[in-house]
Design a protein that fits this description.
Blueprint (H helix, E strand, L loop, with lengths): L4 E4 L1 H14 L5 H18 L5 E6 L3 H15 L3 E6 L8 H11 L6 E2 L2 H7 L5 E6 L11 H12 L4 E4 L21 E5 L2 E2 L13 E5 L5 H4 L6 E3 L23 E5 L6 H14 L3 E7 L3 H7 L4 E5 L9 H5 L3 E4 L7 H15 L8 E3 L2 H8 L7 E3 L3 H8 L3 H6 L1 H12 L2 E4 L4 E4 L4 E4 L11 H14 L4 H19 L1 E2 L2 E2 L10 H7 L3
Parallel strand pairs: 1-8, 2-3, 2-5, 3-4, 5-6, 6-7, 7-9, 10-19, 11-12, 11-14, 12-13, 14-15, 15-16, 16-17
Antiparallel strand pairs: 1-10, 17-18, 18-19, 20-21
Helix pairs in contact: 2-3, 3-4, 8-16, 8-18, 12-13, 16-17, 17-18
Length: 509
Amino acid sequence: MAKSEGLYSAAQVRQLEQLYARFHDGSTYILMERAGAATYYEMRERWPEHNKVVVLCGKGNNGGDGFVVARLAVQAGLTVQVLLMPGAEKPEGDAERAYLRLTALGITPLPWSAENFASATAESGSIIIDALLGTGAVGAPRAEYALAVRAINQCEQPVIAVDIPSGLMADTGAVEGLAVHADLTVTFVAYKRGLFTGLASDYCGEIVLNDLKCGQGVFALIHPNAHRYRYQQGTSWLTPRRRTSHKGFFGHSLVLGGAPGFAGAARLCAEAAARTGSGLVSLLTHAQHAESIAAQRPEIMCHGVHDSISKDSYRSLMQAITAIAIGPGLSQLKWGSNLVALVEDFLAAQDHHSIPSVWDADALNLLAKNPRKNDNRILTPHPGEAARLLGSSIGQVQADRFAAIEQLQQRYGGVIVLKGSGTLVANHEQIDVINVGNPGMASGGMGDVLTGIIVGLLAQQVPLYEAARLAVAIHGEAAEAAVQWQGQRIERGLLAADLFPHIRQLVNP
């Protein structure tokens, strides 16, 4: 089983650094030296043929790390140009010590200007070191910093970000205005949680962690406020089946959805539940296309539902199910709201409280109009649906996805899956970040497949939180496998149904 990786806020990382200093003569300068050395090492490992280094240094400790990189490059015989942002010419604290050690070698940094940057990077074979803004920066880069970020992004040379790309928020993965597009981010002490969600994947490039030899004693005192979750951590829930197994052992999933014009969403969800291993799958869908779905996928037991619903008509069916998914292709019209009422009435009964459910798509939009809390339910909103559930805007959700998912969990209970690049999964105790997948997943039906995977796992008695995060990981890994073709990555044109053969492989590790 893969080891869980802790994700920390910027403030927590600063606490870790201070704790290390307390245990080691009170100084944090050694951490700056190690950070610069780690960056220099990764640079030489990846671009050994490049012989010129252009280091842009801000006025904080991030700039100090840059001074160390520059000094090591000079000592190795590389051509080095250091450009100082306003205020960085008079560094303080650890950064001053690093600056003095650099200038003692005869290096004279130049002030940042567009002209100096253009001159320094005119030749091919240069590497740019982004040591402008560290994890403590708040808001968009301003004034000369914004110009420097723009110049870096327009340059065609490799870019290494020191600790975090300048302009990317360490706690949220948000970008306000501009941020550096790095090819490599060398981050220090611990992973910052903003490196794996929001817009981070557009800016970080490859991410490498160096803990700067802080030691386990320090980490034992500060607990991460989120974790990075991988598929390998959940495979213990996917044990081989006994030879004497039969379908009754593996649950009965019920999917409700598929209003007129949206049959595909319901069918994709139901098939995903079956591909995940649910012993039986039933589908309540609109009567006008129940027969066509049954003809396409006869393993799904389809029941046509007319515009007027008699709850008693489905009582015997619902008595047999072990997990419910509602929402794919549901619509917010009367037909869809009737199905939501059917599910809620069923789950409200005393002997049905233990049946887990997953809500997606228009079931979420209907829930937003009449919020109810339920601790045995998974909600799977994308940012737009999350905004409606919270009565906020997409911009507010994406500005701090961690805050948004905490608010959703507090308001609605249960488990929340906030979809997007770097999907978040949360219950009342913890948050996991799952950053697997690719842009090919930006196509219709992908969310329906995820909902189907979740309900399929729930039907097989996987606990609520484990089902949610394992399903997200399976979904992303299946998409990664599906874009591989003859040694290439073919992302554009990926269809939701393309994931099915890979889902089947992943649920049989």
